[in-house]
């Protein structure tokens, strides 16, 4: 007897499955075949922790990118200009020995003193992070404005100079603060950068201030004032 190949319709139980499969996704189709294996594939594809093991690594990568950005900027700045007279420094009187010593008591006392801010800015310049002080000062200046058009103009200038990723003076801010700034820039006010200003103030306090107190710039002021007092 000669074998005859079956060319009829697909059995209903399989045909129904295939017919209904037309509108199903590839993932759903996989889950319908292979039993538990398909279900495992679907669950794995929906897991939010595809990179869960590298959360800290991602943060580290952001930090490393910030460090690389600072190094590239350092290369663009000549060592010869590192200790030049600071342009546009604040007008202030020569600090007394008592004032200089108060700067070491707290960062707030340093930042409230115009002469202290100038000296600290000089130190930041040697660390290639002067933009932090410049940004903070610009925010303080913006807070004094009441004219709306002037506020908008200064806010736009601050954004372009210190917030934009295209600026060589960009300050280091986290994504949340940047998002807040972008939202507030739709209608700028004197407080548009208050979150960013606080973050940069905290950064200078925790990161730069301890090194400033140990720097030759500050020590020379303290020792120089001590010698002057003893001689008189």
TrEMBL record:
<keyword id="KW-0539">Nucleus</keyword>
<dbReference type="GO" id="GO:0009968">
    <property type="term" value="P:negative regulation of signal transduction"/>
</dbReference>
<feature type="region of interest" description="Disordered">
    <location>
        <begin position="1"/>
        <end position="41"/>
    </location>
</feature>
<keyword id="KW-0832">Ubl conjugation</keyword>
<dbReference type="GO" id="GO:0005634">
    <property type="term" value="C:nucleus"/>
</dbReference>
<protein>
    <recommendedName>
        <fullName>Regulator of G-protein signaling 20</fullName>
    </recommendedName>
</protein>
<dbReference type="GO" id="GO:0007186">
    <property type="term" value="P:G protein-coupled receptor signaling pathway"/>
</dbReference>
<keyword id="KW-0449">Lipoprotein</keyword>
<dbReference type="GO" id="GO:0005737">
    <property type="term" value="C:cytoplasm"/>
</dbReference>
<dbReference type="InterPro" id="IPR036305">
    <property type="entry name" value="RGS_sf"/>
</dbReference>
<keyword id="KW-0564">Palmitate</keyword>
<keyword id="KW-0472">Membrane</keyword>
<keyword id="KW-0325">Glycoprotein</keyword>
<comment type="function">
    <text>Inhibits signal transduction by increasing the GTPase activity of G protein alpha subunits thereby driving them into their inactive GDP-bound form. Binds selectively to G(z)-alpha and G(alpha)-i2 subunits, accelerates their GTPase activity and regulates their signaling activities. The G(z)-alpha activity is inhibited by the phosphorylation and palmitoylation of the G-protein. Negatively regulates mu-opioid receptor-mediated activation of the G-proteins.</text>
</comment>
<dbReference type="InterPro" id="IPR044926">
    <property type="entry name" value="RGS_subdomain_2"/>
</dbReference>
<keyword id="KW-0963">Cytoplasm</keyword>
<dbReference type="GO" id="GO:0016020">
    <property type="term" value="C:membrane"/>
</dbReference>
<dbReference type="Pfam" id="PF00615">
    <property type="entry name" value="RGS"/>
</dbReference>
<comment type="subunit">
    <text>Forms a complex with G(alpha)z/i2 subunits and mu-opioid receptors; the formation of this complex results in mu-opioid receptor desensitization. Interacts with OPRM1.</text>
</comment>
<dbReference type="InterPro" id="IPR016137">
    <property type="entry name" value="RGS"/>
</dbReference>
<keyword id="KW-0734">Signal transduction inhibitor</keyword>
<feature type="domain" description="RGS">
    <location>
        <begin position="106"/>
        <end position="222"/>
    </location>
</feature>
């Amino acid at each position: 007897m000669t074998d005859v190949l079956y060319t009829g319709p697909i059995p209903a139980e399989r045909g129904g499955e295939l017919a209904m499969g037309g509108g199903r996704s590839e993932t759903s189709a996989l889950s319908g075949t292979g039993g538990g294996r398909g279900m495992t594939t679907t669950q794995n594809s929906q897991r939010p922790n595809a990179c869960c093991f590298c959360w800290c690594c991602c943060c580290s990568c952001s930090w490393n990118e910030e460090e690389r950005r600072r190094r590239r900027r350092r290369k663009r700045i000549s060592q010869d200009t590192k200790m030049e007279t600071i342009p546009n420094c604040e007008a202030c009187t020569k600090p007394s020995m008592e004032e200089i010593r108060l700067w070491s008591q707290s960062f707030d006392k340093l930042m409230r003193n115009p002469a202290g801010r100038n000296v600290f800015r000089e130190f930041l310049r040697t660390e290639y992070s002067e933009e932090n002080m410049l940004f903070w000062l610009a925010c303080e200046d913006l807070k004094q404005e009441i004219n709306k058009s002037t506020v908008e103009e200064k806010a736009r200038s601050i954004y372009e100079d210190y917030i934009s990723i295209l600026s060589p003076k960009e300050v280091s801010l986290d994504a949340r603060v940047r998002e807040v700034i972008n939202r507030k820039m739709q209608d700028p006010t004197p407080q548009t950068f208050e979150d960013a200003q606080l973050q940069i103030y905290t950064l200078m306090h925790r990161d730069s201030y301890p090194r400033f107190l140990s720097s030759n710039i500050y020590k020379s002021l303290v020792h120089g004032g001590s010698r002057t007092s003893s001689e008189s």
